[in-house]
Amino acid sequence: MRLSSVAGSRGSAWRKVWTLASLSLAVVAGVVVIPRQAGAAWGTIAAIVMGISVPELVAMTAVWALGLLAYSTVLTIALPGLSRTRALTLNLTGSAVSNLLPLGGAAGVGLNFRMVRSWGFPTSAFVSFTVVTHLVNVAAKLALPAAAVALLALTGTLPDQRFTITALVAVAVLCVGLGLVALGVRRAGTGEHVRSHGGGEHLRRRRGRLAAGAFAARAREALYDTGRALSRGWWHLTSGMTAYSASHVLLLWIALHAVHSPVGPAGILAAYAAERLLTVVPLTPGGAGLVEVGMTGVLLGLGGSPAATAAGVLIYRAFVFGLEIPVGGVWLLSWLWSQHRSTRLPRRAVSCESSM
């Protein structure tokens, strides 16, 4: 008991230190570094932000909503049987939790697991869903730098070789990852063959004998479901993720256009690629602070107007990061209320029957 309590207290202390360090890094990066990058006070940047028109706000909101719908297609393919409304629920609530907490991705996954199980999906289906969505997201994040560098090279605006080196590393990692995924899909096909020839009965017998066998069987089942989702839905996954990324690029373009920051399409794609890469390892909640600094630095290096560029990046991040917190929070509260009502109704029915 003493050892476990000591370990628990150390873990709690480590989480508090990490939370404090993460939030401090986000504040320093966002509050101190961005104005220095822009060469302007926060009052000047805020005045530029407040100068955008209502039609531009409406247009950005519409593009943001279309991006959510596009990503819901990815989720429905990754988890067969998932409705679009529930896909939006998973996306918005998970994002709200992840954007609020340091390393909040784990908390978001835990919340999504609770939701998926309440809807009647098995654990193996959720494992497959999580693997597929993470694979698709990471693949998109790694492919974007290569596309950005190609466009910058074609337009003759490639500033230096650092962009090229980053793109080459990302492509190399992407190729290795795709090879591993292809191997997993092939093994999943082998698993399907074993099932169809009576191998499943042997696995079921082993499940009853050893707990390790049960875990291995579930892992194989999750691998099989993952491979099946990738092999059967790769086109819809790719098109949905492409549409989602395109909506974000369009949203960034509208935000920069609204503040009159002259950056071409290749530069906007490069800034979006930088954002995606900086969120791979979330040192701060949702990459807050670090992402804005990275995007602003890329855009300034490609000829953006300093104060206007910083304002445009903040507007963009207010949609893709900030707006998801209150919207997802309200969505989460509505889901919790529906869960509360669904648990109270059976109790009332039982009490009525007992009184009769």
Low-pLDDT sequence parts: 189-201
Mean of the pLDDT scores? 77
Q: Helix/strand-derived class? A: mainly alpha
The portion of residues assigned to helices is: over 70%
User: Counting H and I runs of at least 4 residues, what is the number of helices?
Assistant: 13
Main beta sheet strand tally, sense and closure: none
For the termini, the CA-CA separation is 50 Å
Q: Mind explaining what this structure looks like?
A:
This protein is an all-alpha fold. It is built from 13 helices and no strands. About 4% of the residues have low confidence.
Task: Describe how the helices and strands are arranged.
Layout: H1 2-38, H2 42-50, H3 54-78, H4 84-100, H5 105-118, H6 123-155, H7 161-196, H8 199-209, H9 211-258, H10 265-278, H11 290-301, H12 306-322, H13 324-355
Helix pairs in contact: 1-11, 1-12, 2-12, 3-4, 3-9, 4-5, 4-13, 6-7, 6-9, 6-10, 7-9, 8-9, 9-10, 9-12, 10-11, 11-12
Short description:
This protein is mainly α. The protein has helices at 2-38, 42-50, 54-78, 84-100, 105-118, 123-155, 161-196, 199-209, 211-258, 265-278, 290-301, 306-322, 324-355. Helix content is 86%, strand content 0%.
Characteristic terms for this protein:
single chain; 356 residues; mainly alpha; 13 helices; 86% helix
